[in-house]
Amino acid sequence: MNSVLLAVIGVAMILAGYFLYSKYLANRVYRLEPNFTTPSHELTDGVDYVPTNKYVLWGHHFTSVAGAAPIVGPAVAVIWGWLPAFLWVTIGTIFMAGMHDMGALWASVRNKGKSIGALSERYIGARGANLFLVVIFLLLLMVNAAFAVVIANLLISTPTAVIPTWGAIVVALLIGQAIYRFKWNLAAVSVVGVVALYALILIGNSVPLSLPETVMGIPDNAVWIIILFVYAGIASILPVWLLLQPRDYINGLQLFIGLGLLYGSVLLAGRDMVAPAFNSNVPEGTPSLVPLLFVTIACGAISGFHGMVASGTSSKQLDKETDARFVGYFGAVGEGLLALGAIIATTAGFRTLADWESVYSAFNEGGVTAFVNGGGSIMNAGLGLSTTLSATVLATMAVLFAATTMDTGVRLQRFVVQEAGEAMRLTVGKGAATIIAVAVALGLTFGAGLDGSGGLLIWPLFGTTNQLMAGLTLGILAVMLLRRKRTIVPVVLPMIFLLAMTVYALFVQLGTFYRDSNWLLLVLDLIILVAAVWVIVESIGAMNRARQGEGADDEEVEQASTSQDRSS
């Protein structure tokens, strides 16, 4: 099959989801109200609660949720063939990811910007909430530790990406000042910012930078990891308008342009998919497609991390409730398009099937490198960009995605630490919570040695933990909708499927960890499995109570009535 046809079909399906299905969800299911007083206005503090232009907030949300996962997941999953990955990404984006992300935003906005962890106590119960915090903490720990390792390795393997990666921070700081302090025109600032970022890419391509192999006896990747965590810790306590928002916004524009370059190259190059649609010759040791496909590709189809970002930072910045459709659903669309691009790059970016099979010689052998090399080959053929420049563009895309996710991840981990403190009746300050969040992630990252390999130690559980989080978030949405006497079918059907695949995958991985004598992952798998079953039972009980009319949201009904009175 030709990659052009696949790209056209995939993009058309995903955009149709936004223009049609998201409108149904916004009007008939979540019933977003333009005059509802959002937390960003009600609780404005200039640090976390900041009313934000929906385009700027979309940039923050999209780049925060995307990370490296929508590249890594599809780039690994194509080992089963490109068709299963394609179907899961497109159908998942349309009917699951967009619905989940918009819903998480709506749920948090209706509850004063509270996180999913805090919402679980209100809608599921205290026992479920405590287990929820365990799952959330482990998920954020995996994201922060693993992405630090991924970014460090990319900065070492592609030194031309160093200048644009760190230069983007300076550009973001200037953009934040231009938008919020000097009130300059957003469109003009956007154009200048994007031009500056691509100028940095050109400079970086000509001036590659590398650290010495060791610095005071510490290997270069460990030095990068330390620098990244110091930066993320500082960024997580700064006001969102100063760095986080403008950095994510301008990165979002740059990354969408990068996707445009990739898809334009696909159209011009007209490459065929060299990988099989269904791979009947998978390497020995490759797990079964069902259920592992549905947890290998999480970000790009549906991801629990999105709900954490939506309820952790984005909901506190939403200017109008109706903006949730653009920020939440269209943010998922952006990630779906990235995942689709990763599928095409890693299956049409090789010249022959033999070349593809040499890379995909074992499960988990694909990944970011396959995306950068395959996508670079397509951009070279389609646009005539040099192989080095193409690799720099795509590597910078991957690094900026991962870095913005890490920024937000550390901020969210700080919120979780503070919420855990509240549950134990302890007051944990912003600085102390940040130090704890960074210290725990650094401890995991360097727990297996200075090479940072510990950061990927528990990564095999990321997919299942992430999808479990998404399923449980959908449970909260179902309870909220039941209390309002609204349809729950668009939420419950994806929830049942997702939780079934996740629990199934946890059992499959349990057997794998036992056979490999991987006792750490075995114990963590058991903890997550017990938490999953327990919270599922609690969620079913909460839905039954909501169906019987218990636990009506008097406060929210009153707020909604007040906003409707104002609008009339």
What can you see in these coordinates?
Keywords: Cell membrane, Membrane, Transmembrane, Transmembrane helix. It holds the Pfam family CstA. It contains 22 helices and 2 strands. It is mainly alpha-helical. The protein has a single domain (3-551), classed as Hydantoin permease (Orthogonal Bundle), CATH 1.10.4160. Strands 1-2 form a two-stranded antiparallel sheet. It is globular. Mean pLDDT is 87; it is low at 557-568.
Strands side by side in the biggest sheet: 1-2
- Rg calculated over all Cα atoms: 22 Å
Q: Predict the CATH topology.
A: Hydantoin permease
Q: What distance lies between the first and last C-alpha atoms, to the nearest angstrom?
A: 55 Å
CATH class: Mainly Alpha
Name the overall outline. Answer: globular
Treating each run of at least 4 consecutive H or I residues as one helix, how many helices? 22
CATH architecture: Orthogonal Bundle
The stretches of 5 or more residues where confidence is low (pLDDT under 50) are 557-568
Number of strands: 2
Helix content: over 70%
* Content of β-strand: under 5%
- Biggest sheet character: 2 strands, antiparallel
Subcellular location: Cell membrane
Protein name: Carbon starvation protein
Domain CstA N-terminal: 2-347, 363-505
Biased composition (Polar residues): 559-568
